[in-house]
Amino acid sequence: MTEREPPLQRPRTLPTAPYLEAIVSYGFRGSVRFHVPGHKGGPGADPGLRSAIGERALALDICQDIEGIDIGPKPTPYEQAEELAAVAYDAGTTWFLTNGATQGNHALILALAKPGDHVLVQRNSHASIVDGLVLSGGMASFVAPEYDDELGMAHGVTPEALARALDRSPDISAAFIVSPTYYGMAADVEGCARVAHERDVALIVDCAWGSHFGFHPDLPDSPLHLGADAELASTHKIVGSLTQSAMLHVGNRTHPPLIDPGEIARCIRLVRSTSPSSLLLASLDSARRQLSAHGEALLDRTIAASMRAREAIGAIPGIAMVGSELVGRPGIAGWDPLRIVIDVRGTGCTGYELAAELRARYDIYIELATHATIVLVLGLGQPVEPLERFAHDFAETVRILARPGEGRALATPPAPAAHQTVVPIRDAFFGRAEAVPVDEAVGRISCESIAGYPPGVPSLLPGERVTEEVVSYLRALTGAGARLHGAADPTFTTVRVLADRSAGANGARAEAQLPAR
């Protein structure tokens, strides 16, 4: 690590969690419930569920529109909770999301890519961006991230690539990029924001994996602080709220965004359940409180443990670590030490093989395996002892499975000419389709968005031509045990394509783009 910087000067927030405290007050004071949910705070629930999650959790499972929680005198505890989150992230407006960052992506696309609107999207963005375009009917062009053929991983979009893509289509109103990546590499968000704003284009950053950015001097700064107009944070991934909860932050408090928060709010309501989980909302409120009050101290400990673990893992024969040494390469302006990326090619094994053995031998579950790597994700308050044991358990796994020779990355070939968006995404998704054997689909127009999961970024989009390269790549993924998200046939024996073979034959607009991981 570099020499320690001064403590972060963040806006002050109260060490309170108003929404959590309000539902605790209601849940445990003995109120009579003649409202949903039907388990009535626990007594009506199945005994097995009561035993599994406990009476206290059921008591706090409260419906919307309870006086003193989310209705009543302003600001309500719910409104106070979102405002405290906005202050913590220095955002103009923050929304709590109970359908993950997916809900935020859907709302952003609905607001910014209405029918006839044109947006720019990083080609390896999460599948929810593509799904949002199906819902909205907006038009999209794509910009390629930098790509590492050696490791088979995509990095960030460079400001130069963003400028070229925006200059090709001057009608673009918003650009969507990803930072950090699944592998913890942060893009030059500040440079991208400058490029976008020079062209009056809003910059939206999918920071799903960086909800802790900006809360420790050894981490990259948050996208909002670097000039982005909106930032999506999957709070559950690192910061510790419950699975399926996230936040959307729009606008810096000193720099108004180039997007209308009122329009975003309208679209969030469109994709929000009228019965949001109080448990998810309370977990966001409490995670914000912990991050604001104790985040830097918790991150201190976790980062130190990560560095010790990286050193021990890197000493294993055949293993190399991926991290800070990549900073400065195109598309990489910073990295996240809470992501431990292990290059396993020197063992002669794939990451899939080593991950399977770790599960079978030690009951260890990792975040991601690829042909070339395995990835561990650490949390804000990572338990240190299991991390310290991992190096020993992994060394034994490598010793058992290692074989002569060097493994290879399963790289997605950078073949932009082979990937063309020849039919609008929405038209292809809802077009008359037929399921054909995969080999017969080559050259036809896909009706599906298919992504290996994790990380959930599409390798094939609706409206793109199916190519031999993508077929080979998706077959290799399924053969290695990966799950295909969005595929009508998860075995990838067939694929749905437009029944009209002439679709897209004329007037096609080829977008230079990089097949995504």
List keywords for this structure.
disordered C terminus; alpha+beta; 20 strands; 7-stranded mixed sheet; 517 residues; 16% strand; 4-stranded antiparallel sheet
The portion of residues forming beta strands comes to 15-25%
Name the poorly predicted regions: 413-419, 506-517
- Please tally the helical runs, counting DSSP H or I stretches of 4 or more residues: 16
Biggest sheet, strands in spatial order? Answer: 1-10-9-8-6-2-3
Radius of gyration: 23 Å
Could you give the distance between the termini?
Answer: 30 Å
| Estimated structural class | alpha+beta
Total beta strand runs: 20
Describe the 3D structure:
The protein is an alpha+beta fold. Helix content is 35%, strand content 16%. The chain is built from 16 helices and 20 strands. It has helices at 18-28, 47-53, 55-59, 77-88, 100-112, 127-136, 159-168, 189-198, 235-238, 261-270, 278-314, 351-362, 384-401, 425-430, 438-441, 468-479; strands spanning 91-97, 118-122, 139-143, 147-148, 153-154, 174-178, 185-186, 202-206, 230-233, 246-252, 320-322, 334-335, 339-343, 368-369, 373-377, 433-437, 450-453, 457-460, 483-485, 494-498. Strands 1-10-9-8-6-2-3 form a 7-stranded mixed beta sheet, sandwiched between helices. A 4-stranded antiparallel beta sheet has the order 11-13-15-14. A 3-stranded antiparallel beta sheet has the order 18-17-19, covered by helices on one side. β14 and β15 form a beta hairpin. α1 (18-28) packs antiparallel against α4 and α5 (100-112) crosses α6. It is globular and about 65 Å long. The two termini are 30 Å apart. The model is unreliable at 413-419 and 506-517 (pLDDT under 50).
